[in-house]
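Q: Can I see a sequence and its folded structure?
A: Here is a first one.
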Amino acid sequence: MESRISGHTQLYALIGSPVGHSGSPAMYNYSFDKLGIDAAYLAFDVPVEKTEKAIEALRTLHAGGFNVTMPCKTAVAQLVDKLSPAAELVGACNTVVFEEDGTMTGHMTDGVGFVRNLKEHGVDIKGQKIVLLGTGGAATAIAVQAALDGVAEIAIFNRKDEFYANGEKTVEKIRKAVPSIQKVYIEDLDNTELLGQVIAESDILINATRAGMSPMQDVIPVPAEFLRPELAVADVVYNPKETLLIKKAKEAGCRAAVGGSGMLLWQGVAAFELFTGQEMPVEEVREKFFE
């Protein structure tokens, strides 16, 4: 990197807290170097209450753009000048581009990354019926992008906890913004009988809960007997690489069993293209940082 840093090097960044564990700087800087782009990517630990100051600092430094992680995604969406359709529906953004006129456009690439990861595994969501477990940030981004990309039905399941209302809001937003969708609704995840019935009539099952993630690595979000060969199963959890759900999906002979690391890769690819107009060297990045 030292050999390519100059007085003209463009700054890109990640803001949020904590960011010390992030693999983004390595992935982006490797890609800049590989493509000969005069840019550098740094991570800055920014608590949510200092989000506005951080953005103003990046604007002052003429940064090209920045990524956003928790807990700043919602705050950033309220501070940018424009939002992409997905970011507006989600009410949060994970990628911001400084335009030539100095304005900021906020994007949400998590859903794009998820859909692209499915496609890489031979699963097209258009016209499909999906069951989505969870109502957090990742789940919301996936629901919104799936709706925008032409999915037929979305059945969201979540326990009736403090996040259930967030799922209800997502349902209403999608109904208003994407009237072409045939059906979108939310039900109680604890209603196992209904969950089984809906999965039996659906094409894709998506886990966007913490089930499968440490310390819940021995937890499967739905009974294994709900899995069948005609079903595609995907998880947003990427550590461990193969969750119990993905393992059971493979054992059940599901037509696809897709882990979460690909979503992480492809959302980064989408952000990189928004920043630079070029596609990240995907295969090299996958081999170096995701294998």
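Q: Show me another, different protein.
A: A second, unrelated one:
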Amino acid sequence: MTYALRRRLWAAALILAFFVTWEVLCLGLGVSDLIVPRPSQVIATLWVRMPVLWPHILQTLWTTMIGFALGVIVGVVIGALIGTSRVAYDTAYPLLIGFSSIPKVAVVPIFVLWFGAGPVPAVLTALAMCFFPIVVNIATGLATTEPEMEDVLKSLGASKMDLLLNVGLPRTMPFFFASLKIAATFAFVGTVLAETVASNKGIGNVMMSASSNFDVPLVFAGLFILAFLGVALYVVFSVIEGRVVGWANRRTDLSPS
């Protein structure tokens, strides 16, 4: 058995132990499901109500994916501008930091005022939540390009666009995939935040309705669904990252010396 396989088995065992401990503590301490439901109750709720929850899951998923895709496009474009232009850096970076410092719950009502209730505010909130990590990592990756390499390539006739497409952006790939895994979770947060305020469909709306009816197992079921979606997306990007930029990652199949 390889070290990597043993590590994964240990991780799975610890995760399982976490949920078993949660179950045992709730039973042993007599914790009411109005406070913290047991994992078995949450799983039973998911099983029974999945036909009703499924349309809401799809709504949250596709809304998040649209907002995330737009956030990636916006983040890459702005990050490339900031990373290649000192003027753009000095102008845009303070504005971006100021915007990212604004709690997104404060901008959801503005989106509702502009576009009405529905999926559009959720898409825009997901975009607003996820694009900033991509901007920062793309700009950081471009900043790691050695000036000496740029000088040599310019002396050989390379243009700024050649440097960006053939040197700068490829070197940002490890930073880019790291930011994608962070941005994906932020996108889900933004979507659910908007759904609790400005939508009649989606996991956020389900959780809000369940909490108002004191249906705590359903609230936790929504949390489990969101956690699963976030982990699944993280795994997808990790697999793609290993295929695309495996050269930048340390090997994990060797036992530590």
